[in-house]
Design goal:
- It is a single chain.
- The chain is of the alpha+beta class.
- It has helices at about 1-15, 20-30, 50-55, 80-85, 115-120, 260-270, 290-295, 315, 335-345, 400-405, 425, 445-455; strands at about 60-70, 90-105, 110-115, 125-130, 135-145, 150-155, 180-185, 190-200, 215, 230, 235-245, 255-260, 280, 280-285, 305-310, 325-330, 330, 350-360, 360-370, 370, 380, 390-395, 415-420, 435-440, 440, 460-465, 470-475.
- Strand 18 (about 350-360) and strand 19 (about 360-370) form a beta hairpin.
Length: about 475
Amino acid sequence: MMKKNWILALAAAVCAGAFAPVLLHLTTVTSAEEKLPPPSRAAVQYSYAPIVHKVAPAVVNVYVRSRVQTFNSPFANDPFFQHFFGKAFGQPTERVMNSLGSGVIINPQGLIVTNNHVVKARGATEIRVALSDKREFDAKLIAQDEKADIAVLKIEGGDGNFPYLQFDDSDSLEVGDLVLAIGNPFGVGQTVTSGIVSALSRSEVAESDSQVFIQTDAAINPGNSGGALVDMAGRLVGINTMIYSQSGGSVGIGFAIPSNLVRVYAESAANGRKVERPWIGAKLEGMTHDIAEGLGLNRITGAVVTRLYDKGPAANAGLKEGDVITHVDGVEVADARAVYYRLTTKGVGQTTRLTAIRKGQPVDVALPLIAAPKPGKDDARNISGNNPLDGARISNILPSIADELGIDETEGVAVTSVRSGSAAQTLGFQPGDIIVAVGDKKIDTVIDAEKALSERQRLWQISVKRGNRVVQLRVPG
């Protein structure tokens, strides 16, 4: 009764004009705040069904069948060799593997974005996608990036009028925003879970220098990989990628690739281009307590410039070793990965504005974003033939190559890519591996490696450095 009388009194006062300024203020605040908590208990009973009806048809199941060659070897049970090269040694055997994940249609022609780890199975022979209306189609892999864990597929066939989701700006998300996760967990069929954005720009769990994630407590489980994370407008804000779990099931900590990065790869694939990450000619490291203390900073955040390459974009723009990058285009960055993420979404050919702390004072730097210089004809080789590195591409370690691979070496020969299903991949070679020697021949250049690998051997002996360890690989010729 008291509440009713208060409302009537307020209404009377408004009619009399006494509260006009207050009413104007309330109206302004309400119109500016587009994100509001539920106004009442009854409002909590609202349903997500309209959003699900809109977005679910564009989320597909992805089935991958592959034929995989495995090798048996006397080293197969050696834990050190298993850790370094996997369990692939000895005589080849073939088996069929099936994997399952999710994907999202992003245009009427049937372009699909998913995770690279969903489709990267070696020797993949068939990719099928199943829509929520039970239609199934073959799909073709048209682009993939292992570092970003993004792959783009194209549905083959159909009427060119597929249901699809539109991208939203993932930078507009805030912690606490409601989101829905849609995918095919455990292969049980399309499933929808709800939650909130728990954190933004998570990079602690990233495996590459350009990855940051949206963290959500919407339940994500195995099979959800590649599925959609959507906002309350039914727009795509992320691709569900992985979970933090000690049991294999969801514990309320899931991670999604932000839509702004996914869109870069999708648009490039649609136009037949490969995404080029900007090369800044500098090495960045995340801030630590010791570095912050040494630089006299009271915040452990930002990216420290630890190395500059002569005449590189960063040096030419005026960055100095010891600078701490705190903002990119006005957006605060927590570490080096956050900087690289911002640069990648900005894109080659643009100019970005960096804010850095130098000797306790802020400085602004205009940094042009360019592609890494291409290796010359004598700097890189595709290796083929009867040798353990068949299917690998190797390169002299140029500054741009070291930057791309995230290695500290400045001399030698590095593996830059490995063809799916090749002997090199079967033996466990990875981008970033450094070829130290073949037999008793030290390898300093790709010419050295190419010559040494062209000589037939009854027993191949290759010294490989990965991280801080060097291992001797022995493979029958």
